[in-house]
Structure formats: C-alpha cells, structure tokens
Write a structure and sequence with these properties.
Elements (H helix, E strand, L loop, with lengths): L3 E5 L3 H13 L3 E5 L2 H9 L6 E5 L7 H11 L7 E5 L4 H8 L3 E4 L4 H12 L3
Parallel strand pairs: 1-2, 1-3, 3-4, 4-5
Length: 122
C-alpha cells in the first residue's frame, strides 16, 4: 500500500534523502521547507494521507500548523508524525496531539511502520 505523504523539513538535504527513501518504498512524497507552504498547498486542494512534520521549521510553529490543519481540513483528521532531533520531541509531540514522534536520526523501519499504521486508519 502506498501513501501520499507531505514532508515538512527546512533541512532540504535531509528532506530529499528521506523523500527518496520513501519513494523507493512506493510512496508519493511532496516536500516543503516550511509549514506555511505545506498548509497553503493543502488548503489549495493537495491530497495527502499523512504529514511528516519537523518540530522546528522557520515561520509557523509545528503546533500552530497542527491546529490550523485540524480546523481547516474536515471531515477527516490527517495523521501527523513529528520528526525531530529535539530532546523534548516526545513531550512536544504529545502536547500538540501528534499521532506519533520519531527522533532524528530517523530509524527508517520505525518510520515505515508508523506510515503503514496511520495510513491504514484512513
């Protein structure tokens, strides 16, 4: 099963490598360097099954992105998986209501498992 994934990370090198790995696994991936750009694309009708969101990107905060996403994309909730090297990752992800959190460096198998689990709920 392939998922349509939005990956938000301002580290373009990391984002492109991760996107390529996910494409090899037959997922469709769109990358955005900021949450603002990703949200604009989603509001313009972009289709997605899961959002992979860096905790710290320039502009809009991750929790504000999640809040706006939840209030503007009804009727279904898009799963958000927070990816970060921040030592407070799990606390921050839980506080914002993210479905999952994965620390950097990313364990690819764990990420693929999370994608499969959350995508199967849609």
């Amino acid at each position: 099963m392939s998922a349509r994934i939005v990956l938000v990370d301002d580290d373009t090198g990391f984002a492109e490598v991760l996107a390529e790995v996910l494409r090899i696994e037959r997922h469709e991936v769109r990358t955005f360097p900021t949450a603002d750009e990703a949200l604009a694309w989603l509001l313009a009708g972009g289709k997605v099954d899961i959002v992979l969101l860096d905790l710290h990107t320039p502009g809009m905060s991750a929790d504000r992105f999640q809040e706006l996403l939840r209030s503007t994309i009804p009727p279904r909730d898009l799963p958000i998986v927070v990816i970060s090297g921040d030592p407070d990752l799990y606390t921050a992800a839980a506080a914002m209501g993210a479905e999952d959190a994965i620390s950097k460096p990313v364990d690819i198998e764990r990420l693929l498992t999370a994608i499969r689990r959350h995508d199967s709920l849609n």
